[in-house]
Amino acid sequence: KKEYGGSAVLDIGVYVLQFAQFVFKATPEKLTAIGNLNEHGVDYSETIILEYKGGKRAVLNTHTQLELCNRATVYGTKGRITLEAPFHFPTKMVMRTEAGETVKGFELHTSKLPYNFENSAGLAYEAIEVANCIKKGLKESPRMTHKESIQLAEQEDLIRKQLGVSFD
């Protein structure tokens, strides 16, 4: 519902948008979004195409009512890299080239407390980064700058506008 600030792009879309931002390290030249709205006029799914210089492209999908594969794959001329599900808190990365396949595993932060979502222990790294920045007297993280955060918010606004979602 709008009064709760509901929106697939605001809830989970930020993960796919940030991944594209991380991979391309650039602002897309063009953003195109199509999606579906519920009876309250709130988006519950999107397909987003981000187009970058040099013919580079990101195709992103989100859905709040279906379970998607939740992997992220980057394709290049020499192979591909896949972050296995859930890609936003991965524990496994697979690199495939003509030479073969390499698998790398990642440990998640551990806690005695239970988590609500799969691999959500990965959120601890965000909190740790904030704490480290505060200890160092930093006003922003060099890992995720204010400029990058604003860029993501602007992309989310543009997606909602293209889908016809407004919180006015």
TrEMBL record:
Protein name stated in the entry: SFRICE_037461
UniProt KW keywords: Oxidoreductase
Organism classification: Eukaryota, Metazoa, Ecdysozoa, Arthropoda, Hexapoda
Similarity remark: Belongs to the Gfo/Idh/MocA family.
Gene Ontology molecular function terms on file: oxidoreductase activity
Keyword Oxidoreductase carried by entry: yes
InterPro entries for the chain: Gfo/Idh/MocA_domain, GFO_IDH_MocA-like_dom
Record-annotated GFO/IDH/MocA-like oxidoreductase domain positions: 2-81
Pfam families: GFO_IDH_MocA_C3
